[in-house]
Amino acid sequence: MKPQPQHHADQLEEILSSLEQNVPEHSRSIVSDGVDPEVRELALLAQQFRAAPSLIPDPAFAQRLERKVVAHTVRHAQAQTAQPRWRWLIGWNGIPRAQIVLAALIVCILASTGTLFAMAATVSNPDNPLYGIKVWEQHVQLSLAGSPQSQADVSLQIIHDRLNVIPSLTGTAHADAYRQALDDIKAQIDVVTGVINTLPTSSDRQDVENKLAAAKSTTRNTLYGVLPRLPLAERLTTTTFLNQLGAPVPDIQNVSVVITTHPTNQATITVTGTNLSSATQLLVNNRAVVSDCVVQSNACVFTIPWHGTKSPDTIAVFNPDGTMAQATNILLVSVDGNTNGGTNGTSNGTGNNGKNDNGNDPSNPNGNSNGNEGHQHGGGTPVSKPDPAATPVGKPASTPVPHK
Amino acid sequence: MFSWRSIGGVSRDQEKQTPVFEQTLAHAKKGNTEAMTALYRHFLPGVFGYITARVPDRSTAEDLTSEVFLKMVEKIGSVHATEEASFAAWLLRVARVTIAGYYRQREKQPDTVSLTPMDKEGDAWINESYTAFVNHPDTDPVLRSEAREDWEVVVRAINNLTEEQRLVLVGRLILGYDVATMARMIGKQANAVKALQFRALQSLHRLLAKKKPSEERPAQRHKLSKEKIR
Q1: Closest Cβ opposite residue A57 in set B45, B70, B197
Q2: For residue B41, which residues of chain A lie inside 8 Å, CB to CB?
Q3: Which end of chain A is more exposed for a tag (fewer CB within 10 A), N or C?
Q4: Which of A197-201, A322-326, B130-134 has the weakest average pLDDT?
């Protein structure tokens, strides 16, 4: 049983439908028994409303408007044809369509993001803000790499990118960036090595091994190229890295110093280690000293002018290829024949951070030993280099001593 | 469908020969004048009836109807509707917005003061005119005024209905749509449409019973109010 309101609504609808279909009056339910009086009244009202003359448009008006509509249709069609092609971008009310605006916005964002990444990919200057994006992008690529081979490819690409950047990082201002680049290269070499270890013996593995060997070779060449321009600390770091890459680099096992004040003020410095040759040069207290290495077994013996009895703070050697090593232990053997037997042991391998910067004899802390033009005197007698600006590392005649 | 009251000599037979609505609509969207005319003829009674039931006078209804159909011509290309019920719903939405715009505009306009004399002199003028047209329903100002007043009451009553109730009344009684079509038009179940129709007529009946101007204001029959002259 339907609830009464719904029953009435159904009754009303039944009556209205029968009226619409021109059902003969005698059979209409509007007059039939059992129809609720209210429903009957409402049906009559609906009939009156339906037949209200006010609701019927005047035929003259209808014809007038029809002509107007036709004319407007023609005009509108002509206007549409004449409109520029981009008109579809604009809504009927003259406002750009929201979808178009949204799509344009998305395209702009994607394009600008794509452009940003594309621009970042070409950046080689670490000072450029986009360089950070490039590094981040590469790390994302690395983490998203699906297979070991593609991971190796991304790592090798990173290595090449860093090698491209490194020549622009030789200044002291870029020391941190330079070290970061070296660390990245080391890390990526480790990644590729790890990938190789996971691969079974196959052509793929061989391919990755070849690529890694080529990358290492390129790395060595690049680092040799930048070594002469590097500050002391970075040069030591680079030498260590070259050693890891299998390059021959000097290595100091120990250093002994004999100081004599009579009849001449001089010091005999014996550097024992590997990869030392007669072309090996000496650095005392981070200053290049012109002195020939007299090779004895696996040692280089240097004799240099020396004032005072204080042992040098740091001793380092460098080879003509720019690689260098620094002593960590200096043994002061004797002063004027008196055995000393102590070591200063304070050298940390990074020099004295350039504090000994007075341009004088490395043995003279007062900086009052000047006038020596850096030339060798007395048929090869080694002398200290008083002017650091005229004292090259590796190239004693022209390149200034780098300081950290 | 296609069962509306014919206008301008278009008979029911002619209407039956009208191509399927979807095709007509598609052609009209392409700017075909014949298709546009067919749509216009098809929807004129409904649109006019909907508007005239919402505004106080016929001339306003005609103006707004013209406006609606000109908008139809301009916007039909962007209408997503492809079948009759949804197109009718769209067209009545345009009509509703047009009516709302008319009422908004009317609210903004300052009240106008009638220039028609309201004093004895004016009454004399009315009386003179009155004798000439008395007992002619088309020209008799008294009968016309009464008819207009009565229709204003109907309009006020219809304006008091909800939009859904109005749509159902216009759709069922003026446009002649069946319950199923109305249900598609307003997005409700058939029973809900029947209930809306019932409640709409109930409300209309109640409102009309309350406001019978000829019964309420017999003395003011010939008095032209400020509002009516507007």
Answers
A1: B45
A2: 66
A3: N
A4: B130-134
Half-sphere exposure of B130 (CA within 13 A, CB side): 12
pLDDT at B142 over 70: no
Fill in the DSSP letter of residue B171: I
**Chain A residues within an 8 Å CB radius of B201:** 12, 42, 45-46
C-alpha–C-alpha distance, residues A153 and A148, integer Å: 9
Are both A152 and A237 inside the same structural domain? yes
Question: Does A82 map to a domain?
Answer: no
- pLDDT for res A88: 60
Model confidence, pTM? 0.43
Task: Identify all chain A residues contacting B31, using CB atoms and an 8 Å cutoff.
Answer: 73, 76-77, 80
**Reported confidence tier of residue A214, pLDDT bands at 50, 70, 90:** very high
Average pLDDT of the residues in A255-266: 85
Predicted confidence band at B79 (pLDDT cuts at 50, 70, 90)?
confident
* B230 Cβ neighbours under 8 A, 6+ residues apart: B112
For chain A, first and last CA: distance in Å?
Answer: 100
Assigned domain for A58 exists: no
Contact A154, A142 (CB under 8 A): yes
Inter-chain touch B31–A70, beta carbons under 8 Å: no
Instruction: Choose among B60, B41, B38: nearest CA to B51.
Output: B60
One domain, residues A259 and A384: yes
Shortest CA distance from B198: residue in chain A: A9
Q: Decide if B41 and A49 are in contact by the 8 Å CB cutoff.
A: no
Q: Which fold has domain B115-230?
A: Arc Repressor Mutant, subunit A (1.10.10)
Residue A221 has pLDDT above 50, yes or no: yes
**Which amino acid does the sequence have at B60?**
T
Q: Compute how many other C-beta atoms are within 10 angstroms of the C-beta atom of residue A256.
A: 20
Which of A21, A55, A63 best tests the B interface by mutation, with the highest count of B CBs <10 A? Answer: A55
Task: Name the token pair of A128.
Answer: 């450029």
CA angle B43, B46, B52 (to 5 degrees): 130
Q: Using 50, 70 and 90 to split pLDDT, how confident is the model at B127?
A: very low
Three-state DSSP state, B206: helix
Report the number of distinct structural domains present in chain A: 3
Mutation target among A69, A93, A100 for the B interface, most CBs of B within 10 A? A69
Cα separation, A247 vs A221, whole angstroms: 10
Q: How far apart are CA B152 and CA B140, in angstroms?
A: 18
User: Does residue A46 register a pLDDT over 90?
Assistant: no
- Residue A366: CB atoms within 10 Å: 10
Q: Considering CB atoms only, which of A8, A46, A72 is closest to B73?
A: A72
Give tens-digit pLDDT for A61-72.
999 999 999 999
Answer for the pair A133, A121: CB distance below 8 angstroms, yes or no: no
Q: Which residue has the tokens 């910067």?
A: A357
Q: In terms of residue numbers, what domain contains A30?
A: 4-53
Interface test with B, best of A13, A73, A92 (most B CBs within 10 A): A73
When CB atoms are compared, the residue of A12, A55, A56 closest to B197 is A12
Q: What is the ipTM of this complex?
A: 0.70
Inspect the interface and report whether the beta carbons of B73 and A58 lie closer than 8 Å.
Answer: no
CATH code, domain with A381:
2.60.40
C-alpha dihedral (A355, A360, A362, A368), degrees to nearest 10: -100
Please indicate, yes or no, whether residues A235 and A256 belong to a single structural domain of this protein: no
Question: What's the CA gap between A404 and A229, in Å, rounded?
Answer: 12
